[in-house]
Amino acid sequence: MKTGIRLASLLLFGLMAVSAADILFWYQVERRPPLPRFSVAPHLVWTRAIDPLAVTWTPPMLGTYGALYVTSAAGVHALDRSGAEIWVYRVDASDPIPGGALSEDEQGNLYFATAQSLYSLSPFGLKRWQTDCPRAAVAQNAAGNRLEGDAVYATCENHFSAFSKNDGRETWRLPNFEAQAPSLTPTAPLILRNGELVFSRDQQIIATNKRGSIRWVYPPDNRGAAYALGSGTDDVIYARSFSGDLLGLYFNGSTKWTFHGGPAAGFNEPPVRAPDGTLYVVAPQGPLFAFAPDARVKWKFPLPPSTTVVGYSTPVLGARGAIYQLLEDRVLAISSQGKMLWQLQLPGEPRHHGFLVLAADGTLYAVMDNCFVHAIGTAN
Question: Exposure pattern of 144-162 as b/e (b: 16+ CB <10 Å)?
């Protein structure tokens, strides 16, 4: 009898334990944060025209202190998260900003070029200095536009120069070469992590140290021609040959891989490297390619043909695997498997060109060539 009672008691306690565990499991599941959903298109937060009578050819930049910097041909604008203008710096109408890179140093000072000069502004929009540098392109690193050290490096018409960050004084130059670029605006030189500088000249890619001494030349035998497009965070240099091939070069100038895209593909924009090593790069008229680290094609996502030979700008990668691509009238979100997640139509008439930049809070900014800025709220 006692044995039966003991068995019944044990069974009852076992059922109670199982029930408690079941209740705890479902309680935790119910309270667990929902998984991100990419199937619903994000919303347009705001749209602002920063310079209705101007155009822009310069990618926007997110500053150290939270400002969004947007450059038009007429000046540099600093916007806050709501789209309100913090300050604007106007350049002379006879010396507009033609395009290129807007850069920032570790103190938050800005650097940009007009048709004839190189400028530096404080984080508050005040001019620090201005120096002669016709048709300039300011060097930048692969991690964004942050400049480190005590010098600014830029191509200036037919020479490559180093300038003091403090007062804009030229400290050295490599003279007498023809800077080569794939578009009407000069290509920004690259700053590698080892301190070397990479730029294009005389249909070749040149690497120097920070004192101006040449380290290597590609191609070394002067047969063929190539120009630099950009670099990755692993210091792989991306370049395009005149035959249309996309090249990956080690930081010593040797070839890591070659993608034979042919003239029909061509590439004007550098690849973007994901944490797993996948490279995403867009051809001027599409498609969007996903390459393995050895340049093997993983997938291609078709894009509608662009209305200009310049084509589409570089894609932007989100923290949760989404790839954002700006078209002439909308923004696409594509999964890391090459599937459409969503698309968002932008207000206004379609534009020929534009740029994307993604803030840490998930706001995606689309800056079109007519100086309209669209802020898009995402969960990424």
Answer: ebebeeebbbbbbeebbbb
